[in-house]
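Example 3.2
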Amino acid sequence: MKPLTAAARFAAAPAAMLAAFLAASAGARAQTPEQFYKGKQVELAIGYPPAGSNDVYARALARHIGKHIPGNPTVVPQNRPGAGSFLALGYVYNVAPKDGTVIGIGAPTAPLDEKLGTQGVRFKSSELNWIGRIDSLINMVFLWHTSPVKTIQDAFKTEAKLSGTGVGSTVSIYPTVMNNVLGTKFKLVMGYKGSNEAQLAVERGEVEGHSTSWTAVKVAHPDWRPEKKINVVVQFAVKRHPEMADVPTVVELARTDEERKILSAVVNAAEIGTAFFTTPGAPPDRVEALRRAFDATMKDPEFLAEAERTKLTVGPLRGEELQKLVAEVTSLPPELVEKIKAAYEMKK
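Structure, written as tokens:
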């Protein structure tokens, strides 16, 4: 057999390189989730500043889920706040490696924001791979005890200043929707860096109240409601939370069927709640591994003990069910979407 000429060797080199690349790619694809995750770090991208309820939930998950993921990777929380969590959502959707090494948490209203074309949306919610939900997220409006607004009826007659964060956050969305649909007189003072800072603004007297999750208040200031330092005037939920059985839901305040449909669509985000997702395009077996690890964490005695100790509530939803819920939100009928858009518009 004659040896290859220099020209023949040169021509054969790209083919050999391609074959080697394809073999390596096939080997990577053939890895089991355990082989892939072993020795790796998984980032948990948190779309909020430290110390708020979403941050507390995410860090609790990060401390426990790694032992349930095959290969036991180290899970590292990373705060990526900004634009009501849209920066983190955009990062996971557009920038993060599509290999199952990044998990994220963002605003539960994100699928609805996408449908409404809210400014700053750089993601497609239904293309994210949803891993699971720790709990539904019940938001509410509270007023400091010195405010003349003591009940939701007062909020229709008297203006009350509320601390606000990003435009895409439920902190800002829910009071705005109430103003536009029902005629309340909440005035948002924007620019606070997360719900924790916004609550401190209430305590300092910079504003009269704040709209945030019930969990955020319980975690940061467990004495506020028992000691009557605040009055919770409305909750954003389909049904009353057992711990706020005396507080009306925003849906109960609807005066017409149209108002009820708009408000129900908006508060359905509460069902998405503290939900976690990974990138589009992640290999299906790794998505499956992350979902089952999440489910196992929700039953983990150590995780549940930490949740109880830090006053976090746990009402999990599996990733597959969450994926369907997100798809439902992103397929609302156009005529209802237009009405919700009008409700979202923050008037100056």
